[in-house]
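User: Reviewer 2 asked us to show a designed sequence for the structure in our supplementary figure. I'm pasting the structure tokens here. Could you produce the per-position amino acids so we can include them in the response letter?
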């Protein structure tokens, strides 16, 4: 059959639409299916995160003077426009978003989270706190905390949490904390929802993650 291929990783025979296009490959598609490609990317990223961060920091440090100089030059050339833009920006910004972006920057984590992402994840959790399931004022909580190398501000890691859960969870590992407080079933439900959210935004997020780390996205399959 011409319109189906077997993925060498999961051995399933799948329609061509289940493979990413890759012009330089034989048949114009990647060898591994979309699902396997995603899994491999994710594993690679998670396994190499610390190493990748270290590499990026070294790169930034060695290019810093150069980077600063070009930034200064840019500012000098575009001063009026920049001033106007930032004062416009200041008028209509959401404070909590600003705070989140700053904390992400300080922790060198990726910030890629729009108001639409927030509305979507609140909807996914039925407008309730992801942990205790109560209807309350919802805050943006990092499921994996910012202090952890995987604590990015991205779809799939931000969950709606009531103030009480948010402040009692703080920097704790989500798995142990949720299981201890709300049971293993709730933990499974949360993980399932977050996996769904993550898959929905997969390409956008993984591209940004590699971009953020300053390395090219590796090609698998
Ligand atoms: Zn596969
Ligand atoms: Zn709660």
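Assistant: Here is a per-position design you can include in the supplement:
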């Amino acid at each position: 059959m011409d319109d189906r291929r077997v993925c060498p990783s999961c051995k399933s025979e799948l329609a061509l639409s289940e493979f990413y296009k890759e012009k330089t490959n034989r048949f114009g598609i990647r060898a591994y299916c979309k699902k396997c490609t995603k899994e491999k990317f994710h594993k690679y990223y998670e396994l190499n995160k610390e190493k990748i961060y270290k590499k990026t920091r070294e790169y930034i440090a060695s290019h810093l003077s150069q980077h600063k100089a070009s930034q200064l030059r840019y500012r000098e050339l575009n001063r009026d426009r920049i001033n106007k833009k930032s004062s416009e920006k200041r008028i209509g910004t959401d404070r909590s978003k600003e705070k989140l972006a700053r904390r992400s920057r300080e922790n060198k984590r990726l910030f890629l989270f729009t108001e639409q992402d927030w509305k979507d994840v609140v909807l996914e959790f039925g407008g309730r706190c992801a942990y205790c399931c109560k209807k309350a004022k919802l805050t943006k909580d990092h499921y994996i905390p910012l202090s952890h190398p995987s604590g990015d501000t991205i779809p799939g890691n931000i969950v709606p949490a009531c103030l009480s859960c948010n402040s009692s969870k703080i920097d704790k590992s989500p798995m142990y904390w949720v299981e201890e407080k709300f049971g293993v079933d709730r933990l499974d439900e949360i993980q399932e929802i977050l996996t769904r959210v993550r898959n929905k935004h997969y390409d956008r997020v993984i591209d940004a993650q590699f971009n953020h780390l300053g390395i090219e996205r590796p090609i698998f399959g």
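For the response letter, you might also mention the following. The first helix runs from residue 34 to 77. The pocket of zinc ion (ligand 2) is lined by residues 129, 131-132, 134, 161-162, 164-165 (CB under 6 Å).
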